[in-house]
Amino acid sequence: MRPLLLVDVDEVLAMFIHGFERYLAGHGLEMRINRFAIFQNIFRPGEDAHLDLAEGRRLFNLFFEKDVEDIDPAPGAREALVELAEQASIVILTNAPPQSRGPRARWLVKNGFDYPFVINSGPKGPAVAAISALTSGKAAFVDDLLPNLDSVAQVAPAVATFQMVADARLRPLAYAAPERHPRYDEWADLAPIIAAAIR
Ligand SMILES: [Mg+2]
Prior knowledge:
By secondary structure, the protein is α/β, with parallel strands linked by helices. The protein folds into two domains: 4-14 and 73-197, HAD superfamily/HAD-like (Rossmann fold), CATH 3.40.50.1000; 17-70, no CATH class. It is built from seven helices and seven strands. The chain has helices at residues 16-25, 53-63, 77-84, 101-110, 125-132, 146-155, 187-197; strands spanning 4-7, 30-31, 42-43, 89-95, 117-120, 139-143, 160-163. The strands form two sheets. The chain has a five-stranded parallel β-sheet, with helices on both faces. The N and C termini lie close together (11 Å). Bound molecules: magnesium ion. Magnesium ion binds at residues 8, 10-12, 143-145.
């Protein structure tokens, strides 16, 4: 059976925080990357207290309606998947609000990630278990978020898990457990490790 590779989008294939930051700047707001969180990092220039969380969430949802289509791809991601696709079936597994289905699909195709994609909500373990059950081949999963990786390890333990954090500013802040989920933050380093794991 052909191996399977399940890949997250934001901070794995896409520079999400960078794109959201650009969007916020258009609304007169700034991001200060102080912690591994989104809403607590949004500020009005000159203010010490972060933006009201509900207002941050509102902007986040608006961003996903349209502007999410303009974020930059992670360096080397497209090339890495082209290579891995020779060996494995690729499925994109993204946690995104339902209104982003259209923009996200267009973004994927526009940036050379023309693979089947699934929009999930909540921990990714159950979705990964369901999708990987369709094949008896080896499977791997890549995400930036430790809770998603742990969820997959718990619900689909046969799937190899890898962490990748595309934005260099988030790397020192990201929760990691490299003994459970080997971590490689550059696609050039990660791709050969995945290739070996599902060979
Ligand atoms: Mg992500």
